Amino acid sequence: MSTRERTVQAEAGERRRVTSFDVAERAGVSQSTVSRALAGLETITAATRRRVEEAARELGYFVDSRAARLRSGDTRTIAIVVITREGGDVRAINPFHFTLLGSTCAAAAARGFEALVTFQSEPEQLFGRFVEERRADAVIVIGTTANLPAWEHFRNLSEDQPNMAFWGVGGEENEWVRSDNLQGAQLAVERLVAAGHRRIAFVGETGGHQLQFGERYEGYCRAMTAQGLAPLPPVTGTGETRDGQGRAAMEAILKGDRPEGLFFACDAMALGALDHLAQRGIDVPGDIGVVGFDGLGSGAHSHPPLTTVEPEFALAGEMLVSVALDAGSSERRVPVRLVERRSVRAPR
Amino acid sequence: MSTRERTVQAEAGERRRVTSFDVAERAGVSQSTVSRALAGLETITAATRRRVEEAARELGYFVDSRAARLRSGDTRTIAIVVITREGGDVRAINPFHFTLLGSTCAAAAARGFEALVTFQSEPEQLFGRFVEERRADAVIVIGTTANLPAWEHFRNLSEDQPNMAFWGVGGEENEWVRSDNLQGAQLAVERLVAAGHRRIAFVGETGGHQLQFGERYEGYCRAMTAQGLAPLPPVTGTGETRDGQGRAAMEAILKGDRPEGLFFACDAMALGALDHLAQRGIDVPGDIGVVGFDGLGSGAHSHPPLTTVEPEFALAGEMLVSVALDAGSSERRVPVRLVERRSVRAPR
DNA sequence: TTGAAAGCGCTAACAT
DNA sequence: ATGTTAGCGCTTTCAA
To answer: Which CDD domains match (chains A, B) (predicted)?
Structure first.
């Protein structure tokens, strides 16, 4: 359809969306010049660009992203899937995943990508074909390891779908990003040792699907050995939530030979344990030292505030995005740091 | 281009995306039948549909959402903008907004919409023309009231952009959704009174941009009066964060005539205040009763765990989505409930 | 119930 | 530096 025909149609009174043809007519240039000017191509002279921009503003014109992306072939969008517990509501989501989601959105934006976010939990409704549907250029998967069918689903997807990245574990060999768990565990153990503790226990399941816990235990063992101390077998507690698991583990620990220091595989468990300790009247850090992992904000207000190992969230988001987009990206270990609060007594 | 031509091109060895034409050929039907079958239109016979679906599966075909939406005119997407502090990182975001974000995404999904999420903070980079760009059918704005330029930006947008919804306040008359603050305040005051407290103070700024705090104070005043008690002027504390403001307010309160009960306009402030109280050796709920507002998860692990007024998050998300989409939707007050924890002593 | 044809609004290849 | 033209892949008339 020519510009002339469109004009006639418009003048006939039909309500239409303003298109680049309308802008072209108003600016006295061709439609493709409008496209180039608004896309910021260098071949357009400053004067032409100004005229086009003004005409666009006057008409309230915005580029239709669907048409632009259909034609250009890309989407400039990254899909972020947050896996949650089956049947669970948003209140039950570990705040760690929210923080990670936030930094991933920010990292995507920094690279000029938009973020399409879905929370997925029910096995029969899992969906990850965002790239095939041209809804996104890549897919990032984060969330709870407790929902096995969901991880399985996305792991399978990644077999014939290169542009994916997983937090923790999943997908093909080179598609995961996770914390520097060995380093984190070392930081935790060294801090407890500095406080004078020698009998230090690790809390968290090590053989399960939360592969990062296994790494944290491995790091704990290495660090203990390096300090000339004997690593203890990992302690676990059963419960629906991490919180409950932490309480249960704490209860079990207090029944036996009491350790001087405790390294929890995640803050959520440590927080539950702290509650149990307080109820039992056991003083932290006086009677026992506690270190967590994840850098949860809640730890800042717990009793006492929780010393923890925190991944650099900003980097975590950036790495997820670049692994998802580039596939060739190599850095996949997120640096960690010790956040000193008050659940371990001062170094001697 | 005819089906025949496409076939020739494909056989010439050119790598192309699988299209509905390919599926049509394989299924032995026309391209439009493929479209109809996959869209689930009722006019297609079961046998035809099965053949099409099988061909699609065999070829790994998925509908290109850009093309489908360009043609059909919709986007089936809702943009969610989370306003954050200028220069702030994800760690500083109030977890309340994350929970609200989660429930809004869930509500959008329940209505068949996808969620395009952006975190926005810097004044020069604010963007909300998602509808004009045909990136979304509606825009929902949530986040911190502390970023004035951002709220101003989106409020302006809503003047000529009907499909918007704001959490708290903003936009045109009928575009906001917020907690039932009057009811929430009443719940809080009644609980403190039940514990035997009579001198009850309210903490939070009432004349500011956080309009909900004003409503909570109003509700506090009404509830106090209804109980035959004298409302006190609102107490505020200065600080960068809500946490700091809570501490400062607490410090100020302790300098004067000590109240028996405290109602905080938000949990984040209450949590800061609780820390200060603990440091000063003042027992909660023994020496003073505390109630917050927001239902923050952190409150479950504070010292003591924080009794709070919680909005029904699932409903909050649903209301935001339906206000954004329908414009005519009427229900905009989110019901609240009292979450009993341990910062107020048992009713007498 | 299905097929043929039009065209959504844009970008990019090819002209000039 | 700009105009002309083709066509991205689909949904939706219109016809049969």
So the answer is: HTH_LacI (cd01392)
Residues of chain B with Cβ-Cβ distance to A133 below 8 Å are 62-65
Q: Residues near A64 by Cβ (< 8 Å), separated by ≥ 6?
A: A17, A19, B70, B133, B134
Residues B90/A98, Cβ–Cβ less than 8 Å? no
* B231 shares a domain with B173: no
Asked whether residue A129 is assigned to any structural domain, the reply reads yes
Task: Report the domain count for chain A.
Answer: 3
Same-domain check for residues B35 and B149: no
Same domain, B185 and B307: yes
H/E segment holding residue B333: strand B333-334
Residue B325 forms part of a structural domain? no
Residues by CB within 7 A of strand D: list them. A 28-33, 36, 43-45, 47-48, 67, 70-71; B 1, 16-17, 19-21, 31-32, 35-36, 38-39, 61-64, 67-68, 70-72
| Structural domain boundaries enclosing B16 | 3-63
Q: Is any Cβ of chain B less than 8 angstroms from the Cβ of A102?
A: yes
Answer with the one of A45, A63, A81 that is the final residue of a domain.
A63
Q: Is the pTM of the predicted complex or chain greater than 0.70?
A: yes
> What Å distances lie between residue B8 and B14, B22, B30, CA to CA?
10, 12, 17
Which parts of chain B have pLDDT scores under 50? 1-14
Q: How high is the mean pLDDT of chain A?
A: 92
Residue A186 shares a structural domain with residue A296:
yes
Tell me the average pLDDT across A185-206: 97
Q: How many residues does chain B have?
A: 348
A109 and chain B: CB distance < 8 Å anywhere? yes
**Separation between Cα atoms, residue B343 and residue B273, nearest integer Å:** 12
* Residues B199, B253 within the same domain: yes
At B305-334, the pLDDT tens digits run: 999 999 999 999 999 999 999 866 677 899
Helices (H), chain A: 3-11, 20-27, 31-39, 46-59, 65-72, 95-110, 148-157, 181-194, 211-226, 242-255, 267-279, 313-326
Distance A109 CA to D10 C1' (A): 29
The number of beta carbons lying within 10 Å of the beta carbon of residue B25 is 20
Same domain, B230 and B184: yes
- The whole-angstrom distance between A344's CA and the closest CA on chain B is 17
Residue B88's pLDDT is 80
